[in-house]
Design a protein that fits this description.
The protein has 9 helices and 18 strands. With 322 residues, the protein is of the alpha/beta class. It has an 8-stranded mixed sheet, with helices on both faces. About 6% of the residues have low confidence.
Length: 322
């Protein structure tokens, strides 16, 4: 190696080190702001089926714990449920973005969410230390639900054993947080008479965030955020086609308040409905910030919480500013 090459490599190493230092300094005010605060994170979508993304998610959650925040994870498992139902020859149907859940399907939902996905998420986090404790919304009556119905084109649709949250008892979760643990909650709830309900994970996460007085609700999903002019279903599950038929991304709304979101909700369809309803529920229930982030982006949580620019769509209480 020549002297010139050595100097070039040394300069590149110093530049990389300075960039890392700048990133850490950028995070300082956010570390101060959120130290000791509870952050509820909904983990779901197809990122859950990607080993690298799952590992990155676990690293993010543990980083939050070491940084002095109090993360709580609420997870779904839609792709895993659909896969298992398909293996058993049970058809999956959806209405207003929610899975129609027959008693036969409910057995599968309960098994996959609580017995499979929950254990996987707990295991990934606990590779980094004895932090995660898995639980279901049924445990200690954390989530109590009533039967939910959907309205599609003006008609009421029976969703089967799908529930809407009626009450949250966060005592067990608070005890785990106080013990330095990371609660990992599957979105299954009990009814007042002992029934079992499939609850949308976005909805469950919002209810838990409100009950815990969380500083943030973060919903990880398969899209970059809320699209301002999505031409079809509003869900942003793919890129928007241009005039030539090629795929191109639509415009993502970076920030809006509760009133603006409420005005947009009637025009949304598909999977974005429960996500944005969850954000609205959270900020109207006292959570200062709710976010929809692209879970396909590694370390999306850290980029949102600890950088000045942030990513995805942020929902604020009505009239609030950043």
């Amino acid at each position: 190696m020549t002297g010139g090459q050595a100097r070039q490599e040394g300069a590149a190493a110093r530049a990389a080190a300075l960039a890392k230092a700048a990133t850490l300094i950028e995070a300082l005010p956010w570390l101060e702001r959120f130290h000791g605060e509870t952050v509820v994170i909904k983990f779901g979508g197809h990122a859950m089926a990607d080993e690298a993304l799952c590992a990155a998610f676990a690293e993010d959650v543990v980083f939050l714990r070491y940084a002095g925040l109090r993360p709580v994870v609420v997870h779904g498992g839609g792709p895993q449920i659909s896969e298992h139902l398909g293996r058993l020859g049970i058809e999956s149907t959806f209405a207003a973005g929610l899975r129609v859940t027959t008693p036969e399907a409910m057995d599968v939902v309960r098994m996959v969410l609580t017995g499979q996905v929950n254990r996987q998420v707990v295991g990934l986090i606990n590779r980094h230390g004895p932090f995660a404790v898995g639980m279901s919304g049924e445990d200690a009556n954390l989530l109590t639900a009533t039967r939910a119905y959907a309205t599609v084109d003006g008609a009421t649709v029976d969703l089967g054993q799908v529930g809407e949250i009626a009450a949250v008892d966060p005592g067990a979760v608070r005890a785990l947080i106080a013990d330095g643990r990371i609660p990992v909650i599957s979105s299954v709830a009990r009814g007042a008479a002992g029934e079992v309900y499939n609850v949308n994970a976005d909805t469950a996460a919002a209810a838990v965030a409100v009950a815990l007085g969380a500083a943030k609700l973060v919903l990880l999903t398969d899209v970059a955020g809320l699209y301002a002019d999505w031409p079809g279903d509003g869900a942003g599950d793919a890129a928007r086609p241009d005039a030539a038929g090629a795929e191109r991304p639509g415009a993502v709304v970076s920030q809006l308040d509760a009133a603006e979101l409420a005005a947009l909700l009637p025009g949304l369809d598909g999977g974005m409905i429960p996500k944005m309803e969850a954000c609205l529920t959270a900020v109207r229930g006292g959570v200062p910030r709710a976010h929809v982030l692209d879970g396909r982006l590694p370390h999306a949580i850290l980029l949102e919480i600890f950088t000045d620019s942030g990513i995805g769509t942020m929902v604020l209480p009505e009239g609030a500013t950043t």
